[in-house]
Amino acid sequence: MSVTLKLATLAVRTLAKPLSNRIKKTAKEHPKWRRLFVNFSQGLHRIDMRMRLGLLQDQEVINRQIKKEAEAAEARRRAAEAPTVMTEAQMKEHDKMTEEEKKKIKESHKPRIRPLSESKAIEAGANFLSEAFIFGVGAVIIIFESWRSSRKEKGRRSEVADKLDALQEEVDKISSLEAEILRLRAENEE
């Protein structure tokens, strides 16, 4: 990478920082941007917390707990009922109630994620956008540099191919001259 390109890259990154700070300031001051950043940040927070909780929780343990609670609810209901023979309709209703209880138990195990305060949400959203901007600038610089180096490599390969073609032409000329010399010698010897 040339020194000029390195300096240009450094200058762009240096200019990106104040721009990202300006984005943060705008997000805090304007109500439209504030609302946008709050909504965006709350969504990011929910996704982040779900991922963290999903990674920390052991699904097998949760399923065992749900099964245990469903069995306990079933046992309580059976203890309250007098033992009787149920009709088919009563069996279906019983199974339906059991399924509903299982759903309620599963829903009670979903954690409730508290939203961020407005100031934290604005700060988090603005930080995310400013970091995304800096990341985008860096990505563009990397893509440009790889494009430039591949173009340079293609030029070098083209130059080498041209030189090889020129050398092959020289070899062909020399071969034809040698053949001509051999033919002329053969004529002179006769």
UniProtKB/TrEMBL annotation:
It holds the Pfam family OPA3. InterPro entries: OPA3-like (IPR010754). Keywords: Coiled coil. GO terms for biological process: regulation of lipid metabolic process. Residues 90-112 are annotated as: Disordered. The keyword Transcription does not apply. The keyword Coiled coil applies. Residues 157-187 form a coiled coil. It comes from the Eukaryota. One of its GO terms (cellular component) is mitochondrion. PANTHER family: OPTIC ATROPHY 3 PROTEIN (PTHR12499:SF0), OPTIC ATROPHY 3 PROTEIN OPA3 (PTHR12499). Belongs to the OPA3 family. This is OPA3-domain-containing protein. It comes from Viridothelium virens (Speckled blister lichen).
